[in-house]
Design a protein that fits this description.
This protein has 16 helices and five strands. With about 375 residues, it is of the alpha/beta class. Helix 3 packs across helix 4. The longest helix has 18 residues, at about 100-115.
Length: about 375
């Protein structure tokens, strides 16, 4: 069932280039915002720089990757620590600065040993499932996990709670990335591994209380220090005018390559052709439909007030599958609450099919949850 998720959403060609219609609140985003949509191979063929026209994007050679790995100690190269793909990402992030790449890898490995991010639990969501609304809900045409978040449905603005939830979500996205060159994932011959995610951030509900630069700084710091080259595409949906202030404060800290991955677009109740057209360039029809329905649901105040993402329900689906009576009942209840009768806000149909009966796809602490824990 895992393979069906990626078979439905796999392609072997580059994403189409942008038409230049997306602009940021403060300044125009450069044309070609999808220039980094296709992840590069961890070790370019023949040990030479891969012929990938990415503008100023740096792509390391096999020799550079090997040189980084040779400078790391035995503990750094243990399973689950640093591999060639990680060395490649940090070389790209540092523009080929081998010494800096090695230092940053060691810093991240030290951080991971200390934080154990795969086992970080968002205690706020345990106490109140409505604390955050940010989770993996599907994948795009390049098999990259898709994160969806909506500020209107999140009640918690605590900096540390949001840091934990963000880390847990990033780790879950990595957990769901299909392995490189695995035929069951739909990876085409010569196509690199999936190593980045897409993020659809719905700014519906954004207000002055959200103009806290500390939260933006957490994201920027985490992404730069410990998750470099992980953000593939970032959709900012319906940012209000007040967001301009926050954007001006943080945009100068965002490097040009990352800025090219950002799309600004509005959700409109009457005519969503522009948003639908943009999403359709990155997602299959089923997932595009799901995202649009999710945004529509979340603008229904009565419905949004009743929604909370249930990781115990997701865990039960992964553990017991759709055959379990309590899973079926919970799914029917979610659908009754939705304005779209076929819409399940746990995730797109392909995502739920992939998780169904596959607990290993979830982080360790999520595997242990069940509906009985609610």
């Amino acid at each position: 069932m895992l393979s069906s998720l990626w078979r439905r959403s796999s392609i072997s060609a580059d994403m189409p280039s942008d038409d230049g219609s997306m602009h940021s609140c403060a300044s125009s985003v450069a044309d070609g915002a999808a220039t980094d949509a296709v992840p590069g191979p961890p070790t370019p063929v023949g040990g030479e720089t891969a012929p990938l026209p990415r503008g100023k994007k740096y792509w390391p050679t096999q020799q550079e990757v090997d040189a980084v790995l040779q400078q790391l100690g035995p503990a750094d190269l243990e399973p689950g620590a640093c591999d060639a793909a990680m060395a490649n990402r940090y070389l790209r992030a540092t523009g080929g600065d081998l010494k800096h790449a090695v230092k940053r890898i060691r810093d991240t490995l030290s951080w991971r040993r200390s934080e154990d991010p795969e086992r970080i639990v968002c205690s706020a969501c345990v106490a109140d499932p409505k604390s955050h609304y940010m989770q993996v809900v599907g994948s795009d045409l390049l098999r990259r996990p898709c994160i969806y978040s909506c500020l209107a449905l999140a009640t918690n603005r605590d900096v540390e709670d949001n840091r934990k939830h963000m880390i847990s979500t990033f780790e879950q996205a990595i957990r769901l990335m299909p392995a490189a060159h695995d035929p069951s994932t739909g990876a085409a011959a010569g196509q690199g591994p999936c190593e980045s995610w897409v993020w659809v951030m719905d700014f519906h509900g954004f207000s002055l209380r959200d103009c806290d630069p500390r939260l933006a700084k957490i994201f920027l710091n985490l992404s730069a220090a410990h998750y470099p080259e992980r953000l593939g595409t970032f959709f900012i949906v319906s940012p209000p005018t007040v967001f301009n202030t926050l954007w001006r404060a943080i945009s100068r800290f965002i490097d040009p390559v990352t800025k090219q991955k950002i799309h600004f677009v509005d959700f409109k109740q009457k005519d969503n052709s522009k948003l639908q057209g943009l999403l359709a360039r990155y997602f299959d029809a089923e997932t595009t439909h799901w995202l649009l329905r999710e945004m529509e649901d979340n603008r229904d105040k009565e419905l949004a007030n009743s929604k909370a993402y249930s990781y115990p329900e997701l865990s039960k689906l992964a553990t017991a599958g759709q055959a379990a009576s309590d899973v079926a009942a919970a799914r029917q209840l979610r659908r009754r609450r939705s304005t779209c009768k076929s819409h399940d806000h746990l995730g797109s149909p392909a995502f739920l099919e992939a998780v169904d009966g596959n607990p290993d796809l979830l982080l360790p602490h999520l595997q242990l949850l069940s509906l009985d824990d609610e």
